[in-house]
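Board notes, transcribed. Complex of a protein with 6-O-phosphono-alpha-D-glucopyranose.
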Amino acid sequence: FMVDKGNHRHFMEKEIHEQPEVISHTLSHYLDFAEGKAKRESLPFDFAKLDRIAISACGTAYLAGLVSKYWFERYARLPVDIDVASEFRYREMPMPKASAAFFVSQSGETADTLASLRYCRAEGIPIGAIVNVQESTIARESDCVFPTLAGPEIGVASTKAFTCQLSVLAALAVRAASERGTISAQEEKQLVRELSETPRYATQALKLEEQIDRVGRKLSQYKHVLYLGRGTNYPMAVEGALKLKEISYIHAEGYAAGELKHGPIALIDRDMPVIVIAPHDRVFDKTVSNMQEVAARGGKIILITDKEGSRRAGIETFETIVLPDMPEIIAPIVYALPVQMLAYHTAVFMGTDVDQPRNLAKSVTVE
Ligand code: G6P
């Protein structure tokens, strides 16, 4: 069937704007909002009996997996091994019996991800797939499928599939935590309530588009951009840099903020904007000291934060993009939106082919 752009300039823009709705569909597939619980469809493994999970994927799907590592480890006390599929498939990672493996893929056809899945299949551990295309090879070869209900994604750079992958993984982390007894019924209820508010915050994030468009115009004047973040904002920094380089062709790198002093600080000058993704969470003050290091070297900071964060940062920025204060568990899902919009608007100013960037394919089915 045909999917059209409606009144949007690009599929990517349309898909960014669909997020409140598709996130809502996806979350309600996994969470019972009335009961305040994660749903318990039967699984080919028992979260309570697992010692670890292995996660593998490529590109943006890998970064969704990387965010989920923080969730599974923090809430469910379940260790996660995660790697890009092109490494995973050749690493010969030992797979202890009490493991399960998750593969994250929009298309369900990515060659390296499929090869990693087959490696785990040969190791004899249960396999779960988080996929958007339910008729795909990866879905077919898995023991259980966790669909993302994003609908068809046309833009090569993944947007709504990413936030739906995060939604599924957050819901699974809550379920795992509940089944492992690492959160109480009360805490489960609280997390489910917080997750239920994601679409509302995503809608508010979309209202920042006019400001982000202006920031994108500025960003389009630069050749290099650095993204920094800590905790779950670290994968988000890498995702921001990935999106920007993919569609605007501006060189961008995403780093863990604490690694700044181990290399990238050497690059800081007034010609390299530094985008800092930092809601006021447990690691906020640490990130602020990294921003001070950037500011002291004349770096231009574009801070993506929340109300409380902008009040507490106490630093002169080039631009500050302010989201509402929100629960910590949903921040990675909601912060994806300004990050995507920034890449999108920068690319539009650059005049690139946003939906079909050069040299990239929507689905990489060869190695
Ligand atoms: C390509 C796409 C990316 C995507 C990656 C993984 O590189 O351009 O947007 O994240 O493949 O694709 P998958 O279908 O496995 O999620």
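The chain has 14 helices and twelve strands. The chain has a mean pLDDT of 95.
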